[in-house]
Write a structure and sequence with these properties.
Structural class: alpha+beta
Low-confidence stretches: none
Mean pLDDT: 93
Oligomer: single chain
Largest sheet: 13 strands, antiparallel
Number of domains: 1
Distance between the termini: 57 Å
Strand content: 35-45%
Number of helices: 3
Radius of gyration: 21 Å
Shape: globular
Helix content: 10-25%
Order of helices and strands: HHEEEEEEHEEEEEEE
Length: 283
């Protein structure tokens, strides 16, 4: 019995404790990045006026008239709580797991998505950001760790540049880092640039300006060859609700190869809360 106890203690000290410490270091990095991005929130934002978008293509004007109420404070950083389904599988076998997540979205500067998911006895948790992807099985075994290179940064930039149109519409108002052009009578394209990265996103709206879908060419290795290349990505938006003067989609379905026969939504989410965290003057 004493020998078994010593062996067990040895395993805990040599194997388990370092893994637990490693996991806590990931949490620390998440919170540090969340704190940095939250500080990107303007402390005294301008208020929205349709005159700000008067020179944009008509579908873009329609989009902003729907997405932002006149006089709304133009906060560009959002904190989002969500639940839904997440797939690591394929169209023929998606094997969706239940998912719960928090996201700090601060385009064009970055994002952090902290997720936990479960399917049966399998539990996975971790985070995505512009700098890393880190996921753990049962909170103890690292199963995915990559990022920190130009491919990852470019792919992540595509994601949060597009999500800006869903959840932080003030971040895609025309300015030094965002330009707009027409595609057709119901679609406008914006281009976001930051830190030598550039991403175009097409937003299609209905007659009232409600965005129906967003789509773009994303730098991704989600293909059989596992090679980074541009390929279509997109999302379908619904269940719009007013929050602090913004009209936000609370239901989003998104996936790779959008618009092709191989598309399936690996990410299906319903927001449970969204807010725009304020920064105190001088913070």
């Amino acid at each position: 019995m004493t020998t078994l106890f010593i062996i067990g203690l040895f395993i805990v000290v040599i194997v388990v404790l370092p893994l637990l410490l490693w996991r806590q270091l990931d949490h620390f990095a998440d919170h540090k990045e969340i704190k940095r991005l939250t500080k990107m929130q303007p402390s005294e934002p301008k208020r929205f006026s349709l005159s700000m978008v008067a020179e944009l293509p008509e579908p873009a004007r329609r989009y902003f008239a729907f997405a932002i109420t006149e006089g709304t404070s133009l906060y560009t950083v959002a904190q989002i709580q969500m639940v839904g389904k997440f797939s690591l599988g394929t169209k023929s076998a998606p094997n969706y797991m239940d998912m719960r997540a928090m996201q700090l979205l601060a385009p064009p500067y970055g994002f952090v998505w902290k997720m936990s998911g479960a399917k049966g006895l399998m539990q996975i948790a971790g985070s995505d950001s512009g700098n890393w992807t880190r996921f753990w099985l049962a909170g103890l075994v690292p199963v995915a760790r990559f990022g920190g290179d130009a491919d990852h940064a470019r792919s992540a930039f595509g994601r949060y540049a597009a999500e800006a149109a869903f959840w932080t519409p003030a971040a895609i108002l025309p300015g030094p880092n965002v330009t707009w052009e027409a595609v057709d009578e119901n679609t406008a394209r914006y281009t976001m640039s930051h830190a030598k990265m550039v991403q175009t996103v097409d937003i299609t709206v209905d007659q009232d300006g409600q965005p129906i879908r967003g789509e773009f060419q994303r730098w991704s290795n989600a293909n059989p060859e596992r090679m980074h290349r541009l390929q279509p990505f997109g999302a379908v938006l619904s269940d719009f609700r007013k929050v602090d003067g913004f009209c936000i989609p609370f239901h989003v379905e998104a996936g790779n190869l959008f618009g092709t026969d191989d598309y399936f939504p690996f990410f299906i989410t319903n927001l449970t809360d969204i807010c725009f965290p304020r920064q105190d003057k001088g913070s």
